[in-house]
Amino acid sequence: MPLSNRTTHFDQASPLLKALSQTPIHWQSFSHDLWSYAEQQNKPIFLFLGYFQCPWTQEMLKSLFENPEIIERLNKNFINVAVDRELRPDLDVWLQRSATLLDSGSGGWPLCAFIHPKFKQPFFCGHYFDELGTQERPAFSNLLDSIDYIFREKQEEIEGSSKTLLSRINPALSVDLKDTLAKEQISLEALTDKFTQAFLDNVDQQWGGLKSIPKFPHTTMLLCLLDIIVLKRPDNSQTLYPLLMLTSQSIKNIGLNDHVEGGFFRYCLDEYWGVPHFEKTLYDNTLLIDYFDRLSAFNKEGSFSYEAQRALTFILEKLAIKDGLYATLECENFPSLEIRDSQPSSYTFDKQQVCETITNDLWPLTQTAFGFEQAPNHRGRWHLHQWYSVSSLAEKLGLELKQVQWQIEPIRQELRSIRDEQLNASIGDFATIAFNAQLAKVLFKTASQSQNEESINIAQKILSNIQQRWHRNTGLTYSQPAASAVLDDYVSVMECLLVAIQQDWNTQYFSWLVEIQDFVLHHFIKENKFLVSLESDHLEVYDDYKDSGFANSSARLVLVLYRLAQLTNNQDLKNRAKQLQQSTLVLFETNPLVYATALQCALQAKNMPLIVISGSPLEMSQWKSLTQDLTLKFEVFCVPSNDSSILTERLSDGKICAILCAEDDRKKTTNQEEFKHWLND
């Protein structure tokens, strides 16, 4: 549709775009025609990137975009573009990176970017603006006047700024990759040492996590540290592991965990994990579930797998939307920022109300188990913590262990009923392919441990829905016209399929996995660089290999390619994966902790062998049972002998066979004792 000076017909599935379309501002969608249209009009582009559940985004909607003076300025002097960051995460990456480089600040929403259409790069970015302004932040009307003047009178300065930004926005492009890859391979041992030292330099020795406010769990960092301890056993493990456990216990016991209905909040607002930002996202929860399950498999502490299961139950019960997919439980709904910043969260509890609701015989256990003995921690109310294990509670209160175990869940049910009466938080209606694939992956993993058929059915339903959005020629698509599939969507589906065929071999899943592999290799990778999305090709936005809120997609893709190469004995693909892996690590030393996923994937490729077992179902089950306690050290696939055409080795007729695929070694055995020796070596 040609652009014009009227509001575009927005995708009504987006609550943000729907709300913006109801304002008198002439909003446009982001499209390839945008640049030429803005040049013809000789106007700068004002791009508003918002997240509907962000209260600052909603405040700008109300205070600025319904203001007649602001509306007049925007419609007269700018080409106005609205973007929902949920629908276009690729544009989010581009603009957040630009904003950070332009103002040396941090990312976030909303984001207001002013772009010269000729140079296709922002020359000014900011976040929240209002009509009054502050000493640090101009009033929005004054900002618009200044931008209009700069655009008319400072063209050369804008061009210089845009060129500088373009050279910095893709830092990996400034590295001579060919020269780097021609040199001696990057030493994983040296990188591991730098990573662990960076962690020790920045860890909070009292509360765990990193020394920062707000306090994020940094789950990708924890996953990498756990793999370092499991796979490398470094000399400083005795220092690393207690700090890893301190962090994990804080996440589990204090304010990040929802002790009433399960699930984890995004981050905490203080250094001691006391009170969180009250939002529970699908992505954060699936990642923490995976981490807690892996930690429990390593140290055999059941409390972590228990909390992981509670979080998974929360997702399945609370975050389901249409078509068997899942979304995010958004922030609470408040009429204004002032009310949000002054009223207590409805996630918290009034002690007197709880005391009057809980029966007298259960009150001593309630107040000790959930922290009501402590002082209120959120505007005169209690956000619940759970410092004591069930056995510690029994000992402290002089109760039988079984009695505490029997009573704690009914107490939770009462607390949930109190909260449900007052909580005003909505579930998002946008189902991200990546996040749903990651949920399915977690379901397949937990099902393989517990043989839970219901989890398998849910995971298969999610994959079935995603497969309806796949075509081998055009890739993944969203039902929402304004949404664009990104690299993370593809990689997450590939990871899920890989775990699914580990749980139970499925030839159709394997074929689909190979189709996606071919599509990604052809469309997303250019000279050892990874595009963020196909839509971002014309913007030249490449991945920077960091964990920017999410586990890095490129590093995870490389590991999947490496596993597929091992599984099929494809040496060309294996060499390609190794080369790409070097690319993901070239910037590691600039800030090791933000490259946790890149390091973790490289460590797994080098130190975590893959085993293929092929034979009859009964024999495969018997041999696989020998690996039951080694899931953190080996990737194990069982390929039925009648499906073993994917394997290049000639298998012995009628005999069980195992193939060990290590970094630079591949060997086969039909002898169970030799197989056991592999596992214990």
TrEMBL record:
InterPro entries: 6-hairpin_glycosidase_sf, Ssp411, Ssp411-like_TRX, Thioredoxin-like_sf. Residues 11-169 form the Spermatogenesis-associated protein 20-like TRX domain. One of its GO terms (biological process) is carbohydrate metabolic process. Transmembrane segments: none annotated. It comes from the Bacteria. This is DUF255 domain-containing protein.
